[in-house]
Amino acid sequence: MPRKSATAPLKSVPSAVKPPKGTRRTTPSPETLAALSPDRLIGLILGEAARNAAFRKLVSAALASLQGPEAVAAIVDRRLTALEGARGFIDWQKRRAFTTDLGATVTVILTELATLDRAAALERLVRFLGGADAVLNRVDDGSGAIQAIYERASEAVVAIAAALDPDAAGLFALTLIPRVVADPYGPFGLLIRDLVPRLPATALRSLDDALAEAVCAGAKPADGTSATPAIRAGLTHGNLLRIRQDIADSRGDVDAYVALEQAIMPGRPDVIEIARRLLDAGRAAEALDWIRRPASSQGRVVTRASLAVGDAAIDGRARERIALEIRILDALDRREEAQALRWRGFETLLDADMLRAHLAKLPDFEDEEVWERALEHVSRHDDAHRALAFLVAWPSLDRAARLVLARASEWRGAAYRLLELAAEALEPAHPAAAAILLRRMIDDILGEGRSSAYPHAARYLKALDAMAPRLLAGAIEPAPEAYRAGLRAAHGRKYGFWPLVQD
């Protein structure tokens, strides 16, 4: 009998495979696809395979899986060999197809090979990850799509390895150590670190011994050198020791963690991490000794983004350190010292949580006086933006309004997120203070000619117009009409802005 055409008319749907009530008959689902004849489905698959190389690869791998894992592995190996041998740059015109093909390679390993032979799948994934640098150097991955494929492969390695029996998972982790040594910039150190919490004690012991041998075998670079081989050696040395630290954490060995931290960062260990582990281990006195040691100086970069939220004065590490020392003092029952440190932490960082904790531990009837003293301190703080953020968040809007009016010249339009939030909070009861903040943002946007922010400036100006009737005479200078006239005079030729105001 001649074979039916792939385009044969659709047969009537048998009652057994009719889509459930409420399901759209044109939405692909197991129920709706079951209504199609095998020949029709074959035609659709062949048509898509002819048009889509990545889909064709998936179909070929599915067919190869019928022959066993070796057939699937052969398909993957051919593609990996091609990737390893390629040298040409992939321009933007070819990038999308290349990305799709790369993703299909990982999908084949995960959906076809891993279901048949997990060890073979792990071997191919590790080989795939080993070529990451070469691939990323050949393509402009501005969107991060290719990097995401390698991250998917890394996550799959951890998931598959963790599903092995404990001894096999430990042996697999051991096989990654030479790769960490050979490629300190690669992903294999992080892979082992992700595996460590999932390994049993026996596997951790063997892995730690192997790492210690690798550390001893490697030459630690001399201090102060900048030669490339020395930099690679130093990075390899640090990677191996960080993995050993994770093992020490998993085994609950605080002393080993501390010794390794001192080896990684001679003379400038992370005292916060050491103190935290000692406290958690019930060794509060030792934790206090560590947290009070001088910390390594770390520069803090103040970005436009940090200005935008008004947190340029925030030092996260300082807050973390003070909060941990307070916990340690409480554990040692040195409550007066802890209370004094809460106040100093609030004074230095304008930390609301520390102030709340300080007030909560005061005797009855003393908290009101201390609270007033705290607000006075906030109002006099050197960083007006930090002070405003504190008062708005607490909230103490009367004081926030007074701060805005008293320090009107200090507001930076770059801190737009803070100023917009504050203006919104102040507008109902303190329109003059809100108007100052809105004007500052408008002046910054138009003065800098930031056309992408013109819609925001137009919105702020409309808000100013709406609140103008509520402003008392002389409450703000210049008056609303004069301010608008000044904007016209200074920025009348910014033609992208004024139509937004009219509309």
Task: Characterize the structure shown.
- It comes from Methylobacterium cerastii.
- It holds the Pfam family DUF6880.
- The protein is mainly alpha-helical and 503 residues long.
- It is 68% helix and 0% strand.
- The chain contains 27 helices and no strands.
- The protein has helices at residues 30-33, 38-51, 53-65, 69-85, 92-116, 118-130, 132-136, 145-162, 166-182, 188-195, 201-217, 228-250, 254-264, 271-280, 284-291, 304-308, 316-331, 335-349, 352-360, 367-379, 384-393, 397-406, 416-426, 431-448, 454-467, 480-491, 498-502.
- The longest helix has 25 residues, at 92-116.
- The N and C termini lie far apart (72 Å).
- Mean pLDDT is 88; it is low at 1-17 and 301-310.
Global structural class? mainly alpha
Helix count, per DSSP?
27
How helix-rich are the residues, as a percent range? 55-70%
What series of H and E elements makes up the topology? HHHHHHHHHHHHHHHHHHHHHHHHHHH
Unreliable residue runs: 1-17, 301-310
Strand content: under 5%
Determine the N-to-C terminus distance: 72 Å
Shape: flat
Task: Tell me the major beta sheet.
Answer: none
What is the number of E strands? Answer: 0
Instruction: Report the mean per-residue pLDDT as an integer.
Output: 88
- What is the radius of gyration computed over CA atoms, rounded to a whole number of angstroms? 32 Å
Total separate domains: 3
